[in-house]
Amino acid sequence: MAYKKPVQKFTGKIREVTLGENLKLGGESVLPFYSFDGDTGHKPALGMEIWDVYPESWPATIVNELGDKARKPAEWAKYVEEKYSPDFICLRLVGANQDAGDKSPEECALVAKEVAEAVNLPLVIAGCDSNEKNGKIFTKVAEALPEKNIAFLSAVEGNYKEVGAAVGLAYGNIVVAESSVDLNLAKQLNILLMQLGVKPEKMLMNPGCSAVGYGFEYVVTTLDRIRLAALDQNDTTLQIPIIMPVSFETWKVKESVATEDDVPEWGNQEERGIAVEISTAVGVLAAGANAVILRHPRSLQVLREFINCLI
Amino acid sequence: MARFLTIGERIHVISPVIRKALQERDPEPIIARAREQIEAGAHYLDVNIGPAEKDGEELMPWVVKLLQSEFPNTPLCLDTANTKAIEAGLKVYDPKPGKAIINSADAGSRIGMLEVAAEYGAMVIGLCAKEGIPRDNEERIAYCTEILDKAIAVGLNPEDILFDPLFVVVKGMQEKQQEVLDAVRQISEMGLKTTGGLSNVSNGCPKEIRGLIEAVFCSMAIQCGLSSAIINPLNKLLMDVIKTAEVIKGWNLYCDSYLDL
C-alpha cells in the first residue's frame, strides 16, 4: 500500500489583522511553520525597536552607527527604514518614565507624530513602565494619529478600558492585549476588550514574553496552548495574531548586560546579547508568535533568513 | 477535541403554536422560536414537522427556506419520519453553515435514511433501536453496529452519524438510567459520536425540576463521552452546565467569563 502522509487538520484559523497600510499578520490554520499541514498564513513579521530618548544602554556598534540620529527619533526611524527595511518600526516611549525625563502624554504624541510622518513602514507604539501613565499616553498618541492601524503595546488588566476605548474605539487603531504568561487571563482579557466593543480585527495579543533561561519554557507552553485552543477547539476569542516585544526582555538580562570585564569567560558582550535575542525570537516564533520586535540589526538579518528558510 | 454540539428542540409540531404556524404557513411564530434558541446559544435547530403525510414534501422545503433565509448561519436538523419530506427539504437546504442533520434513521424501518444522508451529503442521527425502546445494551450495541455496517455499505462516513442510544424517562424507568449512560460510554469508546433527547429523561416530572434533571443527566452523559444533545436551549441552567462540563473536560479553555460566551 502506498504511504499516505498524515495531515493534522484544524477547524480554527487565526484572524488576519492589518498593521499600517498593508502589513498583514495571521491567517494561518496550522501550527507555526507547518507548511506540510496546510496554510501557514502570512509570514511572521519582524520589527525594529527605536527609542524617543538617547539609547545609552544599547550595544556600542548600534549607538556608534547611529551617531547623532540616536537623539532624533524621526531621523533614527528613517535611517532604520532605509538601511534595514524591517517589516515595521516600534517606537518605545522610554522617555515617559519618571527617571528618564518623565515626558508628558502631549510630548509623547508629538514625537510619535514626527516618527509616523518620517517613515512609510507600519508603526507600533510601546509605552513606559507605568500602565496607568500608558493609558494617558496612548490616548494622546492615538488621537494625534487616528485610523492608522498603529498597534499600541499594551492594554493590560488594569488599564484595558481606557486603552481599549481610546485606541480601539475612539481612534480606530490596534489594541495589543497583554497578560503575563497566564493562559486563562490571556483569554479573559481578549473577551473583556471584545465586550467593550473593540473589533477583533483591531486587536493583537502579547501573552507575555521572557528571555531564554527566564521561565521561557512556560512562555512557550502558554503560546502552544493558546494556539491549540484557537486552532483545535476553534476558540474564536484566541484567534488573534500574537506580537512579542522580544528585545524588551532579552537586552536586560544578565547574559546581555554583564560586561566582558565582569565575566571574561562569557566572551564578547554584544555577541551574547545578539545570541539571547535570536534564540528567544526563534523560540517564540516556533511556538506561535506572528510578529517579534528586535533591537540588533544582526538579529533582524538572522531571523529573516530563518523564516525564509522555513517557509 | 471538538466542542459539544447542541440541537435546539423547540420548533416542534407538538407545540400548538408551531402546529398552527406550520399548518397556516405563518412565518412569525417559527422565526420567533428560532431566534430565541439561537440567541440562547443553540448550534443547530431541529425542525419537527410531525409525520406530515399529506403535505410534508411541500411543508419541509417551505420551513427550511424560511429559516435559512432568516438565519443563514444556523444549520438545521430535519425531523420527520416522512422520507420524501426529508428529501424535499435537503434539496433546498444550503449546507454553507453546516451539513443538515436528518432526524432520524434507525435499525428498522427507517434504515433507508442512511442512504438519503449519503446521497445528499447530510449527517444523520442513528437511533440504536428497531421497534420501540431497546431492551438492554446488548440490543443497543447490536443496532448501533447494524447502522454502522449499513452506513459504510452506502458510503456514509461514520463521522456523519450521531448515535442515539435512546434516553429514557427517569420517572418510571429509573433502573435503566445507568444502562443508558453506559451505552453512551460504549459507543463513544468505539470512536463514534453520540446524541440524545434530554427532554425524554425528564418527561412527566414537575416543570420546576425538569431543567435540573436534564442538566445533571447531561453532565453525567458528557463524562461518559456524549458529544451532542437535543435540548431546550432556553434552559439556562442546562446551558451553563454544558459550558462548565466543557471546561472540566478540557474541551474549552477556562477564563473567568466562560459563561458569557
What's the short story on this structure?
Chain A is α/β, with parallel strands linked by helices. Chain A is 42% helix and 14% strand. Chain A contains 11 helices and 10 strands.
Query: Order of strands across the biggest sheet of chain B?
Result: 7-6-5-4-3-2-1-8
Mean pLDDT of chain A: 97
Q: What is the distance, rounded to the nearest whole angstrom, between the alpha carbons of the first and last residues of chain B?
A: 18 Å
Approximate helicity band of chain A: 40-55%
Q: Describe the sheet with the most strands of chain A.
A: 8 strands, parallel
The SSE order of chain B reads: EHHEHEHEHEHEHEHHEH
Strand content of chain B: 5-15%
Integer-rounded radius of gyration of chain B: 17 Å
Provide the gyration radius of chain A in Å: 19 Å
Q: What's the level 1 CATH class of the domain at 1-96 in chain B?
A: Alpha Beta
Tell me the quaternary state: heterodimer
CATH architecture group name of the domain at 1-96 in chain B: Alpha-Beta Barrel
Beta strand % of chain A: 5-15%
Major interchain interface with per-chain residue totals: A-B, 17 and 12 residues
Into how many domains do the coordinates of chain A divide?
Answer: 1
How many DSSP H or I helices of chain A? 11
Contiguous uncertain segments of 5+ residues of chain B: none
What overall form of chain B do the CA principal axes indicate? Answer: globular
Poorly predicted ranges of chain A (pLDDT <50, ≥5 residues)?
none
Assigned CATH superfamily of the domain at 1-96 in chain B: Dihydropteroate synthase-like
